[in-house]
Amino acid sequence: MPLMEIKDLRTSYFTPDGTVRAIDGVSLRLEKGHALGLVGESGCGKTTVALSSLKLLPSNARIVEGEITLDGENLVIKTEEEMNKIRWKRISLVFQGAMNALNPVFKVGDQIVEAITTHNRSIPKSNAVERTRELLALVGVDPSRAQDFPHEFSGGMKQRAVIAMALSCDPDILIADEPTTALDVITQARILELIRDLQTKLGLSLIVITHDLSLPAEICTEIAIMYAGKIVECGSTNSIYSDPMHPYTKALLGAFPSILGPIRRMETLPGFPPDLRSPSLGCRLQPRCPIAEDQCKEKEPELVEVKPGHYVACYKA
Amino acid sequence: MDETLVVQDLEKRFPLSRGFSSIFGKSEWVHAVNRVSFTIKKDEILGLAGESGCGKTTTGRTVLKLFEPSGGKILFEGHDVTNLKPKAMKKYRPHMQMVFQDPYRSLNPRQDVMSILSLPIDVHGLAPSRSEKLEMIMAALDEVRLHPPERYVYKYPHELSGGERQRIALARVLVLRPRLIVADEPVSMLDALVRTTVLDLLLELKKKTGFACLFVTHDLALARYTCNRIGIMYLGKIIEMGSKDDIINQPAHPYTKALISAVPVPNPSARKVQIKVKGDVPSPTNIPPGCPFHPRCPYADARCRNEQQQLVRIEADHYVACYKHDLI
User: Fold this and answer.
1) Which of A19, A235, A282, A306 could disulfide-link to A297, CB 3.0 to 4.6 Å?
2) Residue B196 distance to chain A (closest CA, Å)
3) Residue B141, burial from CB neighbour count under 10 angstroms (0-12, 13-18, 19+)
């Protein structure tokens, strides 16, 4: 049994301009100790997947259909009280823009202590302070810096502190939403190294959400590519990189200039992602797809296993 | 005139404290740009790369005199513009332009595309009549591939996507036919697929209209794709400069090597050797003596801690500031 499984999830935002079907039938599975990369452009629904799995959606959004199971238990039907036992203790989330997730008027250490005591009321303050020092050391920040305010931290240190906070209740699953965006290359490489270390040290299972396809190559075991609220391709990291089959995956891979190999012309897709209030009938990529045919306009392709463990939703793959 | 821009020993310092302490105590300065020299030829793109806080953006802005330089010289097409007052500078403004990083903040949300593009034309009095102005605006929109132009002229920024906004920002610059463009991380806020189209557009327009470009970026893979030459900055100094092939394939400075090895590669089987750098960038108020990189450098010795190496030429067009470049 996978540790966490998402089955045919549909989440919509209800806006005055209509219903935005941000996630429209997404299925994912995360095995224990694995790292899943969820990749797509902005607006494809990847962050909504993270928020849905913790039921932290904004008030105008709702899970319309589907199941999210953790060790076989369905989270979708759980009450807010029951979810509070799961948030941070089983699944925790490093928010996007973590650099701004720290409160500027409280000391970094106090904010981590607060996270610990909120989720575990019985723990004495002194133990929480001790735990905070341990956590900071674990993520490679000098524990004496717990007395500093967020503005005294560099971007990389803030990111480390937020990761420490997410680890405060020993979660099984860590969801990292764009963990390295807005950091520069050297800091980024070191944060990735930290995440890799933590994963082996603590036996964490990871979901890494990113728009940058080169990131999961460094840390993930499996990758799922999202486009317009759907998974268009998923499989093992090696399989996706060595044999990408969906035209969207190919376009994403082709759009990144590489530091290695010959300089090639970057290729891209014309146009923009569809309006999720009224997506077209057929394949959602079809208006932008270089190899689309008539059948792509009429019926949406299903995810099909084309190689063991490698799924693609494209008629022409 | 082959060299569009010549920068010699450019310096920019910012005062750290104002008020009483600056009158009585010794005033502290942030040395954002510290004796930086480079040239950019016509039709050439020079990349400036480095970590955040290395002074690359300040260099770009000072070159355009958006900051007053604290020292050194800036020659634009042979004319010394270093100490020109804003009024005298206006003559050069249409020829020296800037594209900003964030198209969500660089366009006025209360102005439509027509007003945004009219402003530079009006300020520099380029269009004798209204109809000619309209023609110029339409041509500029057409150039940046916003087709058909009629559909875009009356739109407001919030109705446009990130890629479309950055094209408007490009059009606003190109309508002046500048001969020097400073592009400050022009695609870092955009999605991968859009990024490609905007970069290709920039390269294509350079071919068509011909300009020199200073391309500020933290992404070396992007610099390699876009630029002819690359300069690597660290704590306000250029520590290595050369053709993009020299820099990417034969980096000589340990910092350049570390930067290159930190770039993630979209290929899990191509794991590279990681060169580890210790600690964080020191504060630019308190630049370490000797080589600014020595506290983080795995190869530093006593000489590196005390003496500062200047840029020396190691190949035809490849300069590096490191005593130990041939040993490592």
Assistant:
1) A282
2) 6
3) buried
